[in-house]
Amino acid sequence: MQLHTFGCSITQGFALPDVVQPLLDSAGKPLSDREVQQQIDSGERAWTDIHLYKPSKYAWPQVLADRLGCGVNNHARRGACFNQIARQCAVGVQDITSEDTVIVMWTYLSRLSLQWPARTSVPFCNVADPNWGWRTVILGMNKLFGLEPRKDADAYTEQTIQEYIDTATRHNLDPLGVYDRYYRSLVLQTMTDGFLRSTGARVIHLSVETETVESQLESARQELDTSLAEPYSIPSPQEFYRLDVDYTSCFVLLDPSIPTAENDMHPSVTHHANFAQAIHEKYFT
User: Fold this and answer.
1) Looking at the structure, do residues 155 and 33 belong to the same domain, yes or no?
2) How far is Cα 207 from Cα 10, in angstroms, rounded to an integer?
3) Could you read off the pLDDT of 223-233 as tens digits, one per residue?
4) Which residues, given as ranges, of the chain have pLDDT below 70?
5) How far is CA 148 from the centre of its chain?
6) Could you give the number of structural domains in the chain?
């Protein structure tokens, strides 16, 4: 058996020790946070010089695989929205066999992204909650996830691109855009589950948030004008959405009594180890 996992930074193991590379000065001493930020702002260094774009060996997929005595393909990457996680599955499905186990850990439904060949952007979430740092994507995410202009981009073209991003983002943050995006995400989840199961593999769906997608969609519907909110002309989600998603196990991964990863709000090595144990006990014993 091979374990295949898909998700966002929490599944990738973002900010864990082996995927963070401290920047050093000429004497080999780690730069202070202020010095690092100065070098990034000046263009001397990039944020990606510090945070490596690969899964961590301390992340729960590897820990779980070790418990199961099998190999793991961790396809998860930081900043992923529902669309990007579904794409991870579409790319990775060719390597999945009927003997394998697939775990998809869906991220926050409120995340959105824009896709181009040379850039992937996660501009915003439509939910702004200072108590949920993972859910609320800060403005700085634009720079962190590849939205910053290329050094060889001409000013006019770049301005045009940025204007489009602003327009597209505003549409997606409008109540009409939010409902449309949420509804399409439920359809995308359903279809992703279908093609993953077509491999014959065991498929498990987890969530990094405790609120169900159905309840979030219903909240979004309440924000629509009455003329749009009811009755359903398109199929109601109750007609097609029957996905069994685990919304409770993530409490282990988000345990506030345990310190988070060093200099970051993401789960620590201990969080990941505890979560792997919980998933092992719940689904494999």
Assistant:
1) no
2) 10
3) 999 999 989 99
4) 33, 47, 121-151, 263
5) 20
6) 2
